[in-house]
Request: fold
Amino acid sequence: MTMRSIAAATLILFSGCTMRRAEPTRAPFGQLPDGRRVELFTLRNTHGVEVNVMTYGAIITSIRTPDADGHVADVALGFDSLSGYLGSSPYFGAIVGRYANRIAGGRFALDGVEYHLARNNGPNSLHGGVRGFDKVLWTGEPTEKGVRLRYTSADGEEGYPGAVTVAVNYTLTDDNELIVDYDASTTKATPLNLSQHTYWNLHGEGTGTILDLRLMLNASAFTPVDSTLIPTGKIVPVEGTPFDFRQPTPIGARIDQANEQLRFGRGYDHNWVLDLPSPGVLTAVARLDDPVSGRVLEVRTTEPGIQFYSGNFLDGSIKGKGGHVYGRRSGLCLETQHFPDSPNHANFPSTILRPGARYQSRTVFAFSTRRS
Ligand code: GLA
Reply:
């Protein structure tokens, strides 16, 4: 059975409740220390799904979805107010860029010039550097079913060449899809790799670990890493390893096996090479389901890779929404992306955007329920 047919066979849209669709609303969501105002956009569909997005970091602050019995819970980790996000948030809900994931040694060469980035993750640069796209103020405007966020990253920002103009559109459809569309252009050649860093817990945030959620990844290979989580450059089949999620498997089933890659990641924190029919075609690549609540999340993307991060670095030091303590593996990320450190690996799909070209990418998070 293909992933698509399994999804078709088991997914039931939230048929119980149908409500009138509300227009997206906007409201103040506090101020940055320099006085600039942050706004919050609320998207609601006819099936009781509600998504909140703020202009700081283009961050999704909450995603409320019904379970199989119609009970609504927030399935995204985060904070109740802006101040939490201004503290030490591990990229909760954010758009990460210019380069989602790691660049080895914070260094790359492009057209014969060497560039140096901040090393904010051991020896490496992570998620765009010290002040990545998750820590800047975007502008927001409502669209018919969502919000369009824009940001212009100056030439040289965080060490990257070229001024990059980015638009991210979040759209919530009445088919229970949250569509994330990325569009960007640049004035000089630059690496660009954008991703969405929501931490999911389909039980509801703050209610324990994600270890019993079942994950399916439409990927027959992954990119193994060194001890600093930089790909070695090899593309290795998942067959016979704890990285084989081609059949739905509880996340906790193999996560603590004696395995060098799991040891390096302290669990899953790796990039899977997705089985796309051809590059750039929107394809169902991941499915997460919660046997308890019956919530199902399907991820579709045009990107060639996905970083599945099992929340290994959450350690209980963060108090999130409602004072919930976010312990180890209490949320997981499914970051659709190009492969980590691509600027230093000629065998990986290119992440270089050149002037005159458009960066376009789409990821869809589709919500449904099933009864086990
Ligand atoms: C990414 C990385 C992880 C971790 C988190 C944030 O997903 O792959 O290693 O750094 O961000 O804590």
User: Anything to note?
Assistant: Residues 90-91, 126, 229, 269, 307, 309, 313, 333, 335 surround alpha-D-galactopyranose (CB under 6 Å). The two ends are 18 Å apart (CA to CA). The CA atoms of residues 255 and 267 lie 6 Å apart. Confidence is low (pLDDT under 50) at residues 1-12.
